[in-house]
Amino acid sequence: MNGRKKYGAAVISVALTLVLAGGYAYAATQHFADSTKDGAWDSWVQKWDSQVSRDYEKVALTPGADETQMNFAWYSKADGTATPKIELSTSSDMSGAAVFEGGASQAIDGYMSNKATATALKENTTYFYRYYKNGMPSQTASFKTHSFNSYTMLYVGDPQIGASKGQTTSRGDKLENASALNTAARNDSFSWNKTLNTAMGANPDISFVLSAGDQINKNVEGRDPGNEVEYAGFLSPDWMQKLPVATTIGNHDSTNESYSYHFNNPHDTQLGKTTAGGDYFYKYGPALYVVLNTNNYNCAEHELAIKQAVAAYPDTSWRIVMIHQDIYGSGLDHSDSDGIVLRSQLTPLMDKYDVDVVLQGHDHTYSRSYLLKSDSKTHSKYDFYDWDNVKDEAGNVFPYNNTAYQDENNCYTIANTMSGSVTNADGTLYMEANSSTGSKYYELIPTQQDYIAVRNQNWNPTYSVIHVNQNSFSIDTYEIAGGQLQKIDQTFTLKKTSTSRR
Ligand SMILES: [Fe+2]
Q1: Which of 121, 170, 213, 276 has the highest count of CB atoms within 10 angstroms of its CB?
Q2: From the CA of 250, how far away is ligand 1's center (Å)?
Q3: How far is residue 350 from each of residues 160, 338, 347, 407, measured CA to CA in Å?
Q4: Are 251 and 307 in the same domain?
Q5: CA 334 to ligand 1 center in whole angstroms
Q6: Which positions of the chain have pLDDT values less than 50?
Q7: Sign of the C-alpha dihedral, residues 439, 445, 450, 455?
Q8: pLDDT score recorded for residue 110
Q9: What pLDDT does residue 404 have?
Q10: pLDDT at site 24
Q11: Which phi and psi (to 5°) does residue 185 adopt?
Q12: Which of 226, 272, 270 is nearest to 252 (CA)?
């Protein structure tokens, strides 16, 4: 959640009223992942203070337009000549390297944003690469491709580096995000690194990561560089140089240009835009992925983006949409309020374009829905108004906890309640990811919605492992509980006996 400060005293008074009424109080909890309790904390503090927090030039890898491509983005200092190129080789000595030239543009003051795309990648191959900054090559790094037809992904929610600000650690320090050191980002980046190490240790064959938004916390506006130290933390784990990450624009990323400088998203549609960027898509083996920027409420544009994606890759076995705001989640803070602003408009689109799965974030809790469809009735459209209200097309203002607003959002039918696995499903699965770092957790909403199959909040960082092949999509979700991995939901599998499109 963000932006409430803009509404000042009025919001404080509304929030107090809601707390006193036992209603939908916004409830960031006292629970967070306190990294200072870890044995490796002190050495991390040294590394953060001396290197990580000052280094804005880490590379970010993003899945390319399809499985044969890899996109790169990185900063270089603006006081030299940008040389946006990548060298790629199958040998660690970089012999026989292919060179991929890209482009550069002005980023925040003092830096250029470099972007390039490597092509003609093959499956089951280790690639070594170097990226250039002002004529000088980086150290050699590497990534691995696995099977293109049957592969594994990591799905994470709200790393939101810096969101632990205001919490007090085991050492009695209050975490903050105002100083250049940003001790909140330092705490959350440690946890992010731990989550990636844990997930990759348990699943070394992961091909890429899906991050459902709010990579960082500080929602500064325009070209304000105030969140750069948080991006530095997000990109700091060694795994981030080896793993492509498809990111979604969250409400915390949305108002600032730095997202667009750090990530080289494929098939950028220029639709659904906010300051950070817009809707994009890519194909990987048997699946099409459409990533929508739902901070923009123009669903006609989101439909156009889905249409373009489906037209580009019409025959994939699976269609997967990733959005930040949870139109079907179960967290207290968003699932019955701003998260569902787009529910009545997006649900029919998932039917129309035969979307199998929607991956969501925003609510810092875990939930898995039953398979849902639109109820095919006409419903009011809503728009964001402020952090406590929405408005309909006629301009009528509805508080989030207003019955009319809630009723109009009962725009779905429950198509299937089977557990375990569903074959040839009619309906869409909606997943909500808890925070992958524990930088901030929310309570579950007191009354579980009827569309929810399973939900969970154990105040631990969680991640999901998704396996996809032509005939199957399966998802497992784990929490990292005091260094131990525990499954928090049964494996859920969608199967198709025929992969031809309806
Ligand atoms: Fe968030």
Answers
A1: 213
A2: 7
A3: 27, 19, 5, 20
A4: yes
A5: 10
A6: 1-25
A7: positive
A8: 98
A9: 87
A10: 43
A11: -65, -35
A12: 226
Sequential DSSP letters for 201-239: HH-TTEEEEEE-S-SB-----BT-GGGHHHHHHHT-SGG
Contact 302, 85 (CB under 8 A): no
Q: Are residues 31 and 102 in the same domain?
A: no
Residue 159 and residue 138 share a domain: no
User: Which residues neighbour ligand 1 (ion) by CB within 5 Å?
Assistant: 158, 160, 214
501 located within any domain: no
Confidence at residue 133, expressed as pLDDT on a 0 to 100 scale: 98
Residue 134's CATH number = 2.60.40.380
Cα–Cα distance for residue pair 167/144, rounded to 1 Å: 38
Q: Could you tell me where the beta strands, DSSP code E, fall in 40-176? A: 60-63, 70-77, 85-89, 98-101, 103-106, 111-118, 126-133, 136-137, 141-144, 151-156
Strands 85-89 and 287-291: unpaired
For residue 2, report the distance from its CA to the centre of ligand 1, in Å.
9
Q: How far is CA 362 from CA 160, 163, 478, in A?
A: 10, 12, 18
Cα of 266 from ligand 1 centre, angstroms: 24
What is residue 501's predicted lDDT score, i.e. its pLDDT? Answer: 63
282 CA distance to ligand 1 middle (Å) = 24
What SS3 state is found at 279?
Answer: coil
What is the 484 CA–ligand 1 centroid distance (Å)? Answer: 24
- Residue 78 belongs to some domain of the structure: yes
- Beta-bridge partners for 369: 452
**293 Cα–ligand 1 center, Å:** 14
The DSSP code for 9 is H
Domain-located, residue 59: no
How far does residue 160's CA lie from ligand 1's centre (Å)?
6
Full DSSP string of 367-378: EEE-EEEE----
Q: Is 228 found in the same domain as 92?
A: no
- Cα of 425 from ligand 1 centre, angstroms: 30
Phi-psi region at 230: left, alpha or beta (left = phi > 0; alpha = psi -120 to 50): alpha
**447 CA from centroid of ligand 1 (Å):** 21
Ligand 1 centroid to 255 CA: how many Å? 14
Place of tokens 């049957």: 150
Q: Which domain holds residue 76?
A: 68-144
The total domain count for the chain is: 2
Distance of CA 154 to the CA centre of its chain: 11
Six-digit token pair at 349?
């689109």
**Pick from 306, 287, 405, 318: nearest CA to 347:** 306
- End residue of a domain, out of 114, 144, 174: 144
Q: Which of 117, 144, 171 is the last residue of a domain?
A: 144
CA distances 217 to 72, 252, 457, 493, Å, are 23, 5, 21, 33
How is residue 304 annotated by DSSP?
A: H
Q: Per DSSP, what are the bridge partners of residue 452? A: 369
Q: Is residue 81 part of a domain?
A: yes
Kindly tell me the sign of the dihedral angle through the C-alpha atoms of 78, 84, 88, 94.
Answer: negative
